[in-house]
Amino acid sequence: MEKRVTFSNTWLAAALILPQMLLVFVFFYWPTGEALYWAFTLERPFGGGNEWVGLYNFEGVFGDPKYWSSVRVSMIFAIAATVLSLVIAVLMALFVDRRLPGHQVYKFTFFLPYALAAPAVGLAFRFIFSPDAGFVSAINQFFPGLWNPALDGFDALLLIILAQAWSLVGYNFIFFLAALQSIPRTMSEAGAMDGAGVMRRMWDLQLPLITPTLFFLIVINITDSFVNSFGIVDITTGGGPARATDLMVYKIYTDGFQGKDYSLAAAQSIVLMVLIVALTFIQFRFIERRVHYT
Amino acid sequence: MIERTPVLDFITQTILVLSLVALLMPLWVVFVAASHDYQTVNQVPMPLWPGSHLFENLSAAWAAGNFDRVMLNSVIVAVGVTAGKICIAALSAFSIVYFSYRLRMLLFWLIFITLMLPLEVRIVPTYAVAANALGPFEAILNAIGISIRLPEWNLLNSYSGLILPLVATATGTFLYRQFFMTIPDELAEAAKMDGSGPLRFFFEVLLPLSKTNMAALATIMFVWSWNQYLWPLLIVTDHANYATATMQLQKVVPGPLFGAPPIWNTAMAANLIVLTPPVLVTILLQRWFVRGLISTDK
């Protein structure tokens, strides 16, 4: 951890780290503190500072069925998108790792979706799944009205889940493939010598060995679904229809910037922050300690 | 491979080809839709082969989205954020690793914890800070008894507002710290013995050694900052002068799903314009991109 050789000019050291600390203070710690302050206060109607209201804002948040529906939708969204993209990515990585002819092509192409901005993904999926153009609407010619994400909440939620899963598949694939390639070939060969077929080796040998990566990706994917989904929702559904896709981040945005209710938005931010901190904590503590096979 | 499994090989190849098609399908659809005229693009199902109107759609979208100005803005922001992140990360990691002072572990943790506070969960107060970036200092000075009015520094509608809040970087600092830890102590010893000061050591030994790291970090950060959406959307109200490329996507489609159907061919052409730079960067600098992804973990 420690370097044996260090320089002793403390003023220089302070000057070098100062820019980072200033940015971190102004744009991370101060706003976070302010969010806490706003969450426990209310602005007086005719100005004159904020009034301490205790847990009033949190009661407002938790007493609101709209908030719980937003939490429920966020959970469904995060879990469904995570499971979908992890399963597809791990299958693809396992198959690419068999190194059949042409496997290099996949290495170069599978991660492309990750390069796209969330709103770009959203726009593409909105077109493909739109009720009156694109592809999926073709089923409406046989079953009129079966697919309409503009009216049907389930369809809209499915649309953003697919978009999010698609945008994460490439990222997960890279990590799974890197993990698989770090397994020594001799291990697979030993398995084969003992009579384990390809599928058996995947299930009993490769999958257990990449569990640390799997758990790491679960946390990253869920966090990403909570945090980065704004772009997708904003371009495709705008939280509708009838709040069926009103994810937590999107609700904070609409309450804070369109509803101008800073205290309500701040209280929701605090809840989300606690959630993200908990997830990060799990990632650092639990996963790195418990899941360790090497 | 180790054994012959023709049936399984066939299944594997089929699944891989199918998933490749499924994965690239949305990109292909964007391209195809951008190349048809209004009537063709609204057919259901849409043709799968590109038409002949690509360039007129692109130029229509380019003009409609004011992309002359917007692309320049995005390049400025992405390059600014990337360069800023790398400079700041390298400098602060250098300070933490190569100097011994009491606060350095505390400072490192203060930087590291910001990982848990992504922009999305603190948008409302960060926006308030951006409206007056010197506000926090004024409040603190006033709190400790120095009554002073600092000038207002409004970051809304400015390049500094688009860049600065995105520059602070925990992952970059962490990456550089890890890298500096692997550099043998003998190098610093030799440099000291030859009479080099810390800055000279940093610029002539550490920076050249960290070129690989820098390239990996730069590709990933460029793509990341090009793709930023929520923050520019908040901080820019003067769309004619400061809009970034991703923001324009909101303009090419009318409201969310309801109301008039979008003009899909120009909307997709605009999407094509916006997604091309990051896609090109990842394809051309693929080696660095993948390396950066795996080493920054986020």
How confident overall, as mean pLDDT of chain A?
83
CATH topology of chain B: MetI-like fold
Structural class of chain A: mainly alpha
Q: Kindly estimate the percentage of residues of chain A that lie in beta strands according to DSSP.
A: under 5%
The second-level CATH architecture of chain A is Orthogonal Bundle
Let me know the average pLDDT of chain B: 84
CATH classification class of chain A? Mainly Alpha
Share of residues in helices of chain A: 55-70%
Question: What's the number of helices of chain A?
Answer: 13
Give the helix proportion of chain B (percent range).
over 70%
- Low-pLDDT parts of chain B are none
Report the end-to-end length of chain B measured between terminal Cα atoms. Answer: 33 Å
- Main sheet specs of chain A: 2 strands, antiparallel
The beta-strand count of chain A equals 2
* Count of the domains of chain A: 1
* Largest pleated sheet of chain B: none
Strand order of the largest sheet of chain A: 1-2
Shape of chain B: flat
Helices and strands of chain B, in order, run as: HHHHHHHHHHHHHHHHH
Termini separation of chain A comes to 23 Å
